[in-house]
Design goal:
Blueprint lengths: L1 H27 L6 E5 L8 H18 L3 E6 L5 E2 L4 E2 L3 E2 L10 E4 L14 H12 L4 E4 L3 H6 L7 E2 L24 E2 L5 E3 L2 E4 L3 H5 L7 H12 L3
Parallel strand pairs: 1-2, 1-6, 2-5, 6-7, 7-11, 8-9
Antiparallel strand pairs: 3-4, 10-11
Helix pairs in contact: 2-6
Length: 228
C-alpha cells in the first residue's frame, strides 16, 4: 500500500511540473495571456443600443470565438447604458496597463459622431504605447480620430467614411485638420502595418454612408493578433 501511495505522489508531482511547463507562468496562474482591450466611451452615440449590440457585441463575440478575452475600458469606468442594451463591466482607462493586453480595438463609440467630445488623453497614451510595443490597434470609423489626435496617422494609410480633409459639398463643416499628414484610402478596411482602420460602423451604415465593416475590421484585427 505504501508503494502505491509513493508512486501516485510521484505521478502527481510530475503532472504538476509538466502542466506548468506547457502552459507557461501566465496560464499557470489562471491568466490566458491573450487579452484584448476595447476602448469605448459612455453615452456619445446617436444610437447607443445599436452600437452596443451590433458593434461592441459583434467584436466581442468574434474575439472570444478566436480564443481571446476582452476587457472594455472608458475614461470614467462607469457602466455604459443604452435604452435597452448595457455594458456593465467597464474598467477605468487610467488604471489600464498596456502590458496586460496583446492589442487594442476601438469601436466607433470610442469617440462618437464627428467631431466628438475632447479625445481622452489616456486613450491616446495607451494606443501609442501599444503600437510602440508592436501590438496591433484597430479603429472603427470615428474612433480613427483617436489615432489622428495622437499624430499616429502621419505617413500612414487609413480608412474613414469620407476624406476628413476634403469631405465634399455634402459635409462642408466636417473638415478635420487632425488628419493632416495621413493618407486617406477610402471607406473600406485598411491595414498599414499594425494599424487597422475602417470607415463605416453600424450607425453610419444606418445613416446611408456606406457598408458596415465591423466584422471585416475585427477579422483583420484577429489575423494581426494571431488566432488561437
Amino acid at each position: 500500500m505504501r508503494k502505491i501511495i509513493i508512486i501516485l505522489t510521484i505521478m502527481l508531482i510530475m503532472g504538476v511540473f509538466s502542466s506548468h511547463s506547457i502552459m507557461g507562468p501566465a496560464e499557470a496562474f489562471g491568466q490566458s495571456g491573450r487579452k484584448v482591450l476595447m476602448i469605448a466611451r459612455e453615452g456619445y452615440s446617436t444610437d447607443l443600443d445599436l452600437m452596443i449590440k451590433n458593434e461592441v457585441g459583434v467584436m466581442t463575440t468574434l474575439l472570444k470565438e478566436a480564443g481571446f478575452e476582452v476587457d472594455i475600458a472608458s475614461t470614467s469606468g462607469q457602466p455604459i447604458l443604452g435604452p435597452t442594451q448595457k455594458i456593465e463591466k467597464v474598467l477605468r482607462l487610467s488604471e489600464i496597463k498596456s502590458a496586460d493586453y496583446v492589442g487594442i480595438i476601438m469601436p466607433c463609440m470610442a469617440v462618437g459622431m464627428f467631431p466628438g467630445p475632447p479625445v481622452s488623453p489616456e486613450a491616446v497614451a495607451i494606443v501609442k504605447k501599444s503600437l510602440a510595443d508592436g501590438k496591433p490597434v484597430a479603429a472603427a470609423a470615428n474612433a480613427t480620430i483617436i489615432l489622428a489626435e495622437g499624430g499616429i496617422l502621419k505617413g500612414k494609410k487609413y480608412a474613414y467614411a469620407t476624406d476628413p480633409l476634403n469631405p465634399g459639398k455634402e459635409w462642408p463643416k466636417r473638415t478635420d485638420q487632425r488628419f493632416q499628414g495621413g493618407i486617406y484610402s477610402g471607406a473600406g478596411v485598411v491595414q498599414d502595418g499594425k494599424i487597422i482602420t475602417s470607415g463605416v460602423c453600424p450607425t453610419l451604415d444606418k445613416l446611408g454612408l456606406g457598408k458596415n465593416e465591423t466584422v471585416e475590421l475585427t477579422q483583420k484585427f484577429i489575423a494581426a493578433l494571431g488566432s488561437k
